[in-house]
Amino acid sequence: MRRLAMITLILAAFLTLKAIPARAQAANLAFTAGSPACTVDGQVYELQPVPVIMNGRMFVPLRGLAVILNAGLQWDPANQEASFSWVEGSRKLTAGVTLGSNTLTVTNGPGPGIAAQFVQISRVDLGASPPDLSGCLFLPLRPLFQALGYQVAWQPVTWTALLTR
User: Fold this and answer.
1) Rounded to the nearest 5 degrees, what angle is found at the Cα of 11, between the Cα atoms of 25 and 98?
2) Residues 107-156: tens digit of each pLDDT
3) pTM of the model
4) In what order do the strands lie in the sheet with 72-76?
5) 136 near 62, Cβ under 8 Å?
6) Exposed end of the chain (fewer CB within 10 Å): N or C?
């Protein structure tokens, strides 16, 4: 009985993720600390768990971020490493981080079906080690999105980060 419940749960999660429509990389995003509502190109999504402020920095949940950005997410429990990736044009971008490390590795390589092209790997100092809160890895918003080519603006009155590309 327990096995059937687990299979049903996995199947439901798979079908839910497959139902998310593919879209181009987001151009405008907004995240507010403590709020589940985030905006991606004018459309409101629910981000769970919510972004948090720690030591003067906004952290966003990697799992929720991957879902709203329609990115693939991988977790390697043996090495405590998380990575997410997506295709943008003819390129495949992958960002990876190890729990306890303050370095994000961003790989910009050829997308599916693209013949040999250059691969660019950059390492970004996150300025803080990503915390694991309630079983979810959080990443500092500003260095993560700047590494992905976004401009980040902070609105201190509303505790909102606005990202544009």
Assistant:
1) 50
2) 988 888 776 677 888 999 998 888 888 788 999 999 989 988 899 999 99
3) 0.78
4) 72-76, 81-88, 91-98, 103-110, 120-125
5) yes
6) N
Residue for token digits 């902070």?
154
- Residue 7, pLDDT above cutoff 80: no
Please report where in the chains the tokens 């405008």 appear, as a residue.
28
Per-residue buried b or exposed e for 102-137, using 16+ beta carbons within 10 Å of the residue's own CB: eebbbbbeeeeeeeeeeeeeeebebebebbeeeeeb
SS3 content of the chain, % helix, strand, coil (to 5): 20, 45, 35
How many residues does the structure list for the chain?
A: 165
> Strands, DSSP E only, in 23-129?
28-32, 37-40, 43-46, 52-54, 57-61, 72-76, 81-88, 91-98, 103-110, 120-125
Under 8 Å between Cβ of 102 and 125: yes
